Amino acid sequence: MSALLEVSRAGKCYGGVVAIDDVSLSVTERELLCIIGPNGAGKSSLLNVLGGTLAPDHGDIRFRARPITGKPPHAFARLGIVRKFQGANVFPSLSVLDNLRVASLGVAIANHQPPPSADHVIRTIKLVPQSRTPAAMISHGQRQWLEVGMTLMCRPQILLLDEPTAGMTAVGAMEMADLVLALAREMAVIVIEHNMAFVRRLNCRTMVMHQGRVAAEGAFDDIARDARVRDAYLGRA
Amino acid sequence: MLSLANLAGGYGLGNVIDGITLDVRPGETLAVLGRNGSGKSTMIKAIMGLLPAAVGSVRLDDTALLGLPTHRIARLGVAYVPQGRGIFPRLTVLENLQIGARAGGPRHEVPDDVVALFPFLRQRYGQFGGTMSGGEQQMLAIARALCARPRFLLMDEPSDGVQPSIVQTIAALIPDIARTRKLGVILVEQNLDLALSAAQRVAVLDKGRIAHECVPDAFRDPAIQAQFLAV
Amino acid sequence: MGGAALAACRLLFAQGPLTPQERLAVTIALAALAVLLCAPAVGSAYTISQLRDALLLALFALSLDYLWGRAHTLVLGQALFFGVGAYAMAIATTKLGWSTGAGIGLGIAVAVALAISSGYFLLFAGVRLHFFAILTMAMSLIAYQVIVSWSSVTGGDVGILGIPPITIDLFGIVYSTADETAAYYGALAVTSLMLLALWLACRGPYGHVLDAIGTNEMRARTLGYNTSLHLLIAFAVAAAIAALAGALYAAASGVVAPDLLGVLPSTEVMVWVAIGGRGTLIGPLLATLLVTQFGHAVSSYSTSLWPLVLGSLFVLVVFAIPDGLAALVRTAWQRLRNRRPQEAIP
Q1: For the whole model, what pTM was predicted?
Q2: pLDDT 10s digits, C217-252
Q3: Are B70 and B44 in contact (CB under 8 A)?
Q4: In chain A, which end has fewer C-beta atoms inside a 10 angstrom radius, N or C?
Q5: Which of A15, A39, A138 sits opposite B133 (nearest CB)?
């Protein structure tokens, strides 16, 4: 199957510190990929490159075989590459509903499509009672759900999620896992997570990053048994 | 002893916390659990004087904290590791730690024993805080809080964005620091493994009130967890 | 293309029902309009001409409130566009022999061209916040110097005198601002209509989009918004409104001078917006009327006192009511409502 999104030999340095070092990666339609790895391994930088918010120093990115390296972030979103940032990145002064409405218009107007309705998404993210509450006043975990909801309003073809369960209860994290599994039936999803219960529930292709490189890749069970991964990252979990 | 009595408040649209009463003794770690939006972070903010409209009482031994400005509360020995870490991104690791040390008084030294808890920090002294990864910033934030030699430590989700092996390290570290330094800790945490292994006591918030208190082992019962944490 | 643009406008400018806060703002606006409509019946000719100027300055304040209060983009040199509008009107009518209508058109065109050409390079290069604000101030200083130096066209330090009043002949019905009362009602109509237009444009999704771009631009970009383009359009629209205000002001007073686009008017308009309450539109409009009238009262006592009083007022507002008079009114009204719980909506 041909790749939906493909990165080849991407590298990025921040003032001498290598964030990602010759990373290649590809995902196909409706594929679910999980990226794990120690803090500072370059996971978020890789997601930034995939989402267009960080231009790599070298290497290139292709979407449906078309080169898109160097395009601005809004162009990535309009192609259907939509991301959720680390640490609930929403519009604090707007209500939950207005956050979703704003999220629905950008891509829809640019692509001359009718915007999707927020009704279904707001139920999916369980924020109906808070729909009129400013996003600054809901809890961290609820803001995570809101931001995931906002990405869905862009009709993504590939969804990039950076630590979607941070700040969530154990139960909430499992609900998020179920949502991600459901979404992966309609679109490709790349998730960065530290919550191993969540990753285990996804039980999908898993990539381990370490010091800016891909250190291991495979099914989650195999990865979890890898002695090097246990030492450097998982501990006794 | 840090004592809360009938602590209530919010952000203007009704109360988020609605009458919380609890005590934390020196050397004790209390985990505060609860669903999203139950008021855990708000409670911590109220203790630190960061919630503009809070009523009730917060006392540190004989000193009333409620109504004092945040910097006074910090100087009285209450340190805060905020959600999202609050690292100063344009300062170096060492400068972040020095600022933490000064919060405890005019002593400008960064205590060696604190840095010894997180050995990687010493190698990174010259790096800007903002260029560290999320988990590294979390450890820096904990170290910075400890540099003030606080008597009480308030931690809001220290496991947020931290790799599993370091979460385990933190889980072992918290009760250890609490015991050896006679430090009282309030730990707001969603990661049950961390919370239950680090704490001696568990309080569960629901709709801004304490709904349940127990020892950590009692909270391992799935039925109890479902009762208080399921949505 | 046209259909798509229309569909986009229909989405961005969709109108919902009035919120309680909006109802309060509309009530205040209508009450103010009623008072202003009656003013010529009671006020002296001098007061009415002052109020006319104040209304045109309020139009100028609206341009900054749209940009600063709604799009979160502070401009320290907004008087540049006001001055360009005024000078274009003066030069077009006195030197080129154009009609006043063409003078207004020229002013708006030059201001928009300036805003787009400078804004394109600044905004698309990622210049934001105080960097952008300071650069616009530098632009206004350059323009001031050009106006002073290029005396063959601009009249130098003296400025230009003898700008004719605006005259419109619609099938025999003649409107002319030569008549003081007509000039006053004209200014009231233009400013009120602009308030209405900006308020309708910004109360729905478009206002939320501007707010989103202002508070978290990267998030807005990754949701598909070309944020630099949005800000450029806002900058150009604000320049056009300021130029319109400047052109009308020049025609009303008959003279232009370089101090129209100096540092003082750029600062004053910022103070009016801050005192009124950023982003509320009606707040800055009313604040302009009140502060300028207060300014006349103080200046009649001593002209050198006014900048001092204005500065102190600004400092006081920033400390005591950082969200301006609008926030004060809103809080007072909410207290009043809470005291009558039986009237609360279930």
Answers
A1: 0.90
A2: 999 999 999 999 999 999 999 999 999 999 999 999
A3: no
A4: N
A5: A39
